[in-house]
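Hi X.,

You mentioned you wanted examples for the new student's onboarding notes, showing what a folding record looks like when two proteins sit in one file. Here is a clean example. The first protein comes first, with its sequence line followed by its structure tokens.
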Amino acid sequence: MIMGDIQRTSKRRQLGFWICGLILVQTFWFQPVLAQNAPHSQAGTAGAAFLKFGVGARATGLGGAYTAVSDDANSMYWNPAGLSRFNGTQLSLMHNRWVQDINYEFVGIAFGDSGAAGFAFGLTFLWMGDIPVTTFNDRLGTTGNTFTARDLSFVFSYGQQINDYVSVGGTLKRIKSTIDDISANATAFDLGLLTSLPIQGVTLGATIQNLGNRLKFIQDSDRLPLIYKLGVAYSQPNRLTLAVDLSKPIDNRFRVNAGGEFVLMKTLALRGGYNSSNELDNGFTGGAGVRIRSISIDYAFVPFGVLGNTHRVSAMFQF
């Protein structure tokens, strides 16, 4: 009887390893074909770039290495499987003052029952300031006419714990991009998995993000920024978190994200990270957070070289 229980437990744990293995094969066996041609050969070929920006200052301070860390309301973006790993109701708010007069906002609410399941609703919104209208004969935009551009994404996520070791999840996104008075719509899906490894405190995560149809503006259309991610994290609750992600966007080369968080007196968190994304300056990120009772306030700083620095502030309310 005891041996049978042990065998069943072993098989359940192996389920998570096999699923991660399949995603690993997809990411590192088939996808390098794109990278072998030219590192940047696919750059600029995907639309809705705001879907890559992430949410939450904590994750940003960790360099974006959050695939295996996900355990709160922001899991709806990073890894929906994490929605099954917290209790209660969480409200997440974020403001990001980006470069070149670009603002990026997020609001989400999640309901979790740790060890069972969780679901969430969210909204991300990006808009740009006034952009000068240019023509072939007026490339400097001296007419004084302007237009705006904005992106919007509605999200519904669900996460389910399969057993003591494995959680899975999915996210449905409805995306709308607008340039002046022309709009395009698309629907996308994310798939996520989290599994606990035999080593205490170590978690493995995997996601496939932005599976869906194309954004179509009148005649032209853009594919969505499909991304494969694999991450590993080590955590000592309320003390230390270390995480590493490896990702492959369909429109760019492989990327590495890494970060660490150290918590003092269960109240103050200090974070540092690295993001190898070629849009960043030196790739380093930093941040801090403070938790007072059921409220967490987080800040992240990301340098963008000659484009300037970006600042991200977020808040998490636990009910």
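Then the second protein repeats the pattern, sequence line and then tokens:
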Amino acid sequence: MTSYPNDASRTLSDSHRGMLGASNISGEVIAARGYRTVRHRSEVPDEFADWQRRLGLLVPTYSPDGQTSGHQLRPNKPIARKNGNAPKYETPHGSRITLDVNPLMLDEVRGGDADLWITEGCKKVDSLTSHGLPTVGIIGVWNFAVPGSKSREPLPCWRHIRLEGRRVIVVYDADTRTNPDVQEALRRLVAMLEAFGAIVLIVYLPALGGDGKAGVDDYL
């Protein structure tokens, strides 16, 4: 069995623990992921650029291959770009793109018979995992395929997930209903999963309290 190590020394601030709890992520799932509060810039892993080294929530990521891992950083104050965008999460430039799975669900995702869920981002993966649902995360709606392949070449880590004959439920954020780019990404993901032999269902989330970008963790 392939597995990831767990470092019990990792710590979370009360505010970060509360944020994860608000997404209905259990303590067991939080510990398995290894979320950690970054209190000093020196604690940010070296793969991040200097301008990305901010205080915030460090989020380890784990590929379903059972070996490849990485990080995202959620700065306490998002870093604004020249175009005005300020993404919630920072990813190291040039890092290898993989799918994500919480280590608690690694074996079930790789070879289980239960329905498999696919969603956006680690926090939503962990919310579904906390409800006992085997879940794979895509770090960005288009990042299910090799960059530059026009979504035609699946990421290699899909090969580590049993898909043939398995029911797969895809749940992107609520803006799937209104965003043509997200709709096209979803269409291509579904086509790829069906080519693997999966039986694909789609959950379309409604806006929640006026939030047109609500995620599945907001409904659990």
